[in-house]
Amino acid sequence: MKVVNTIEEGEDLRLDFGKIAAVADTCPDVIPVAIQNADTGEVILVAYTNEKAFMECLRTRTLALWSTSRDELWVKGATSGETFELVEAFVNCEQNSLLYRVRPRRGGICHTRNSGGSPRNCYYRRINLRTLELENTDP
Q1: For residues 57 and 71, what is the distance between their CA atoms, to the nearest angstrom?
Q2: What is the pLDDT of residue 79?
Q3: How far apart are CA 59 and CA 83, in angstroms?
Q4: What does the alpha-carbon distance between residue 62 and residue 56 come to, in Å, rounded to a whole number?
């Protein structure tokens, strides 16, 4: 029987409006980074980086982020094997957020195993604007 993380794979909309405040309290030296698939243009996820993770990402050309929940360096895919090559990095005008364009090395992207496979990106559930129910868009 598959155990479902209700936030990551559930069907109920449960937005975490307190996330930024919690991050500011526990990890004040981070900035957001949007991660985009360099080949498809899809936004894969939004995460955080700090100076250590940023430098590791540049040094290894592998997607490295800062886990605000674990307060540690997070090499995306180190556990699942779904790692990413850093192709390009961009900074916004205020230099308080980044955009990384990456290429999946193995094909999978999100760590959730929705429907037995790996979703193309972390934004695989669409919000039905009429009912506020979540709809799975991953094939």
Answers
A1: 17
A2: 82
A3: 15
A4: 8
pLDDT band at 130 (very low <50, low <70, confident <90, very high): confident
108, 94 Cβ separation under 8 angstroms: no
> 42 lies in which domain range?
6-136
User: How many domains, the chain?
Assistant: 1
CA distances from 30 to 27, 33, 50, 70, 92 (A): 6, 9, 5, 13, 15
- In one-letter notation, the amino acid at residue 120 is R
Return the structure tokens found at 121. Answer: 């990106």
Q: Is residue 1 part of a domain?
A: no
Q: How much is the pLDDT for 5? A: 67
How far, in Å, are 57, 97, 98 from residue 76 at the CA level? 10, 18, 16
Q: Does residue 64 have a pLDDT over 70? A: yes
H or E element in which residue 91 lies: strand 84-91
In a domain, 25, yes or no: yes
Domain assignment of residue 110, yes or no: yes
Spatial CA neighbour of 68 closest among 50, 94, 41, 92: 50
* pTM confidence score: 0.75
Q: Give the CATH number of the domain where residue 106 resides.
A: 3.10.20.810
